[in-house]
Amino acid sequence: MRRWRRFTPAQRIGRALTYVLAAVAVVWSLRTIEVIPEFLYDAPEQTADLFRRMWPIDWAFWGEMVAEALVETFHTATLGTIIALVLSVPVALLAARNVTPSATLNLLAKFILVSSRSVNSLIWALLFVAIFGPGALAGTLAIAFRSIGFVGKLLAEALEEMPRGPLEALVAAGAPRPSILLKGYWPQVEPSFWSVALFRWDINIRESAVLGLVGAGGIGVALDTALNNLYWDQVGLCLLVIFAVVVATEIATSAIRSRII
Fold this sequence. Notes:
The chain is built from ten helices and no strands. The chain is an all-alpha fold. The chain is 81% helix and 0% strand. It has a domain at 59-163 and 190-260: Orthogonal Bundle (MetI-like fold).
């Protein structure tokens, strides 16, 4: 009798090899990072002790440093996002094959987008701190250069996925290139563009909150100062503010995106 099997013999062998390789990778990783069991057993107690030191929260630290640093965080994230939007649009136009048919320009644009995304924001911040010195300027540029790859890639994909009908009508009517971009491409990708911009701004708020740990300004500077001085009640305040800001921006951006899309 013929028996039905979900996978072919080759597929079953491939799945078994995948499971074996995954298990080997996990075991190898655990041996490489040298996990010390004694530290794992003690971790819950140490964590509880750390949270006990954070209470009661030092609310006086809000006026001393946190309020000004929080405003700087918002400015860093907002200005960095705006710079990224301005710089990512021409790169996205070069990366979209239906807008720029040149393979050389497509590869160049994609190289820029990949380079931007492959470097973490903290690495960008360390680079700009070394160039411009500590401060919000380094954080703003780090946010901007990190965001170019994210916004540019999603915008290029939106351009490539748009329907060709309106574009062909404009070309047949003899519309010039700028009119095709403004009247053909832009109306179709505008909702996606603003949605991506809001999403990236939300991400940048979170990332700029920790860039101060490497000297790039923002509330991370206040957090780093409290950590270095072992003022755990001030650390608790910084963490609470960061959590509240992240939740508030998530709610705000979600509400705005629901109206745009």
